[in-house]
Design a protein that fits this description.
The chain is α+β, with helices and mostly antiparallel strands. Helix content is 30%, strand content 21%. It is built from 11 helices and 10 strands. The strands form 2 sheets. It has a 6-stranded mixed beta sheet. Strands 1-4-2-3 form a 4-stranded mixed beta sheet, with helices on one face. Helix 1 packs parallel to helix 4 and helix 3 packs parallel to helix 4. The longest helix is centred in the middle third of the chain and has 18 residues. It is globular and about 80 Å long. The chain starts with 17 loop residues before the first helix and ends in a 9-residue tail after the last strand.
């Protein structure tokens, strides 16, 4: 066959459908516009998104940026066909990392990569992202959709998120006066959130369970749907508390590494956290994971949030008031423990008592 007789190839024949991509952008524009806020009109289609800090009311702000993904929780969404919640997780994992520094999330951008674009799936994912942005009060100002045949298997996709927030100079957390005698106020999680799912999936596989099976730890919904419960977004109640001058010195987002590895990130040298485990009331999913996976207590506490999604460090005399205010705002908040002098050991988080893990409600 001569050069002139070769078949003429197109990008679509190589597996990338530009027309579908354009159709997706048009279909999600109403979802994106619904996230508009002061500083951003949330119009998409240009080469970059714009945010006006002055219009958002800031005078001398510091910008705080974060990015994250959803991890292998996405695999459960793909295998169950439930795509409308992982977008909320994506936003949550980023904006919760901003609020712990005292920053208000302002804008969000997403990256969606797949083998071949499926419009209904992609739109459901973006709908979740838009919902997460509304829960966080930030604007979805842009993103990227990438078709990469040969890199991803058919039907697979992955997500990444990028968020920027702002905090007035002088209000950045953690504060410099965190120290011994401060109390820890826990705020409950909605479930497993978005960490530890490689272990979760391994346990489910070993138990021989299907995603549409009845949940082995109770409830009316199937296992897959329960495990896809989205990560709780803590932004609005915490931002309201900070604006009301609640005496919050530091915040820790309890993600991968659990309490064991995340609390030390906001503690000064010479200061440890002492946790009273009996005060935590973990959801049954954690008890089931521990029992079915024969996962030890130490491993549970350094892999999962075990029921605590966020921890606030506050002065000892204000702890009960701060917890009560957060409960009034709808959060499951309670005093979890205290900050104590470092005892010279390597462990920055010390646990007292036993975590009450139960596999059923």
């Amino acid at each position: 066959m001569s050069e002139n007789e070769r078949e003429s190839l197109s990008y679509a024949q190589a597996g990338v459908d530009v027309d579908k991509g354009n159709a997706l952008v048009e279909s999600i524009k109403p979802l994106v516009r619904a996230t508009a806020r002061p500083g951003a009109d949330s119009d998409i289609g240009g080469f970059g998104g714009i945010f006006d800090l002055k219009a958002a009311g800031y005078e001398d702000p510091l910008l705080v940026a974060a990015n994250d993904g959803v991890g292998t929780k996405v695999k459960i969404a793909i295998e169950t066909g439930i795509h409308d919640t992982v977008g909320i997780d994506l936003v949550a994992m980023c904006v919760n990392d901003l609020i712990v520094q005292g920053a208000e999330p302002l804008l969000f951008l997403d990256y969606y990569a797949t083998a071949a674009l499926e419009l209904d799936v992609a739109k459901a994912v973006v709908a979740g992202i838009a919902e997460g942005c509304k829960r966080a009060g930030c604007a979805l100002i842009g993103g990227e959709t990438a078709e990469m045949p040969g890199l991803y298997a058919k039907g697979d996709y992955d997500l990444a998120g990028f968020s920027v927030g702002a905090v007035e100079r002088g209000k950045l957390l953690p504060a410099s006066n965190v120290g011994t005698g401060d109390k820890l106020v826990a705020i409950g999680s909605s479930g497993v959130h978005s960490n530890g799912f490689s272990l979760v999936r391994r346990i489910v596989e070993r138990e021989g369970l299907k995603w549409d099976a009845a949940s082995p730890f109770g409830g009316d919904e199937p296992l897959g749907r329960v495990l896809l419960t989205p990560t709780h977004i803590y932004v609005k109640p915490l931002l309201a508390a900070l604006k009301a001058h609640a005496p919050i010195k530091a915040l820790a987002h309890i993600t991968g590494g659990g309490l064991t590895e995340n609390l030390p990130r906001v503690l000064p040298k010479g200061c440890d956290a002492e946790i009273e485990l009996e005060r935590i009331n973990p959801k049954p999913v954690f008890g089931w994971l521990a029992e079915a996976g024969n996962v030890g207590m130490e491993e549970m506490l350094r892999t999962f949030n075990c029921g605590v999604g966020m921890v606030a460090v506050v002065p000892g005399s204000d702890a009960e008031d701060v917890a009560a205010a957060l409960r009034t705002a709808g959060e499951d908040a309670y005093v979890l423990g205290s900050l104590v002098d470092n005892d010279g050991g390597a462990a920055r988080v010390r646990y007292k008592g036993t975590l009450g893990l139960k596999a059923s409600a």
